[in-house]
Amino acid sequence: MKNLTGISPDAEKAIRLLKKKEYKAYLAGGCVRDLFLGKLPADWDITTSALPEETKAVFEGEGFRTFDTGIKHGTVSVLFGREILEITTFRAESGYSDGRHPDEVTFIRSAEEDVKRRDFTMNALLLDPDEGIIDYVGGQADIEAGIIRCVGDPNERFSEDALRIMRAVRFYSQLGFRMDPATSEAVLSCRERLSAVSSERLQTELDKMLTGDFVYDALMNYKDVLAVFLPELKPMFGFPQNNPHHQYDVWEHTAIAVKNILPERILRLTMLFHDSGKPHSVKKRPNGIWGFSGHPEVSADLSREALKRLRYPNHTVDTLTMLILQHDVELGTTIAEVRRQMNRLGKENYRRLLLIRRADVMAQSEYMREEKLALLDHQTALYKEIASRNQPYRIRDLKVNGKDLLDAGIPEGPMVGQILQELLELVMDEEIPNEKNALIEKARSCLEL
Ligand code: ATP
Ligand code: MG
User: Fold this and answer.
1) Are 425 and 336 contacting, i.e. CB atoms less than 8 angstroms apart?
2) Are 60 and 77 in contact (CB under 8 A)?
3) Nearest CA owner, ligand 1 atom 4
4) pLDDT of residue 81
5) Under 8 Å CB-to-CB from 363, ≥6 apart: which residues?
6) Quick one: which ligand is closest to 174's CA?
7) Which pLDDT score is estimated for 427?
8) CATH of the domain at 136
9) Residue 22 maps to a domain
């Protein structure tokens, strides 16, 4: 057996407390898979033969606090120091008449039955800290071979809960595993069922899929799965660009651009949608070269629609649509221009646009690539200089504020704000230094004019 190290001491202690009372208890699900892969698990899920009330009695008897948040589904949360452990009773599920939720959840005493309700073999391993791995479904062999395989019949499992289709694609993107052929076929043939799944659940899986290391393969091989709940992507599939700046169709360009950017959710979502407006904005010129002017506006509108439908928070939608709208904007070539853009877009969004532009360029053709990258290097250097030396690009960076101006005799009213803005422009253009006396003197002279 593979020697698994790195188990959380709290999880181990919780398992021992349950076992001391003659219950069965194991680590289960994603944490066992991650330990097996040598990754640090995000959370520690424990599964047990104890019924929820029995679990509570065990831990409350030892002085721990418990919470009933998921108790209807058999989950009791236990507070261990600063860590919360979720402890779930073995359960069987049946029904699934809506393709999303089981009609009935039954608590059972058999671990083997519990394992059968889980989605993939790699997620169906149990780990006993004393006895090691318990594997009823061949999960170890599948992890070792790098295979995503449904527990049981893929078609059945996907019709019970269609979210599993998207989970298969996100694990494919995160782990770089192959999909077992029967599972892969069912992912594609059952995909329409995803339209019954709630936006919140889809959003979680989409974010995890997009931030995976193997996102390019996921986007290229399972694009039709995404198109079920993101129909805005479909016109990009195979859409040619016929332009010297491009060597890929719009979708492959998109897939490369997504892979090329840091795995931050906002950045990856921006790349996913940044050119979605191109097929709707194409201008076929007589010389055979196609243009796509105005596409950022269309992409921004399409992404807003899609992200709202998936119930992303409003501020995420606003930031994303802004970045998509601005993805082709001039980022400036002088320090004054870069400061102005940082002022207009915000520092963080300016940083994001530098990364967005670089990922975009690296997904285009070789044509003028060196020039494009040289410009980006220059802009990045200017940005870093401004950011690292705290150079002024916002009103609040000025060495005077409204009160200083009033004290210097500027009359109260809208004039104060206007003068501050004017001072900022002059400072950004390096016409005057950012020093209190110089700024006040300038403010007075503004008034005299
Ligand atoms: P992550 O590391 O991203 O949390 P995970 O595999 O732990 O991945 P969770 O959503 O935390 O995913 O679920 C924990 C476990 O519950 C899974 O490993 C799997 O055994 C089971 N599971 C989760 N969702 C489903 C589902 N829709 N159908 C069947 N089993 C599921
Ligand atoms: Mg998990």
Assistant:
1) no
2) no
3) 30
4) 84
5) 248, 253, 254, 256, 257, 260
6) 1
7) 92
8) 3.30.460.10
9) yes
pLDDT at 350: 97
Q: How far apart are CA 443 and CA 437, in angstroms?
A: 10
Ligand nearest to the CA of 118: 1
* Same domain, yes or no: 107 and 160: no
Same domain, 303 and 278: yes
**Which residue's alpha carbon is nearest to atom 21 within ligand 1?**
118
Check pocket membership of 205 for ligand 1, CB cut-off 6 A.
Answer: no
Minimal-distance CA residue to ligand 1 atom 12: 30
Would you say residue 118 lies in a domain? yes
pLDDT, averaged in runs of 10, over the chain (449 residues): 76 96 97 95 95 97 95 94 93 86 89 96 96 96 98 97 98 98 98 97 98 98 98 98 95 98 97 98 94 96 98 96 97 95 94 98 96 98 90 92 92 90 90 94 81
CA dist., res. 230 & res. 195, Å (int): 10
End-to-end CA distance of the chain: 84
Give the span between the Cα atoms of 50 and 109, in whole angstroms. 8
Residue at a domain's end among 128, 145, 162: 145
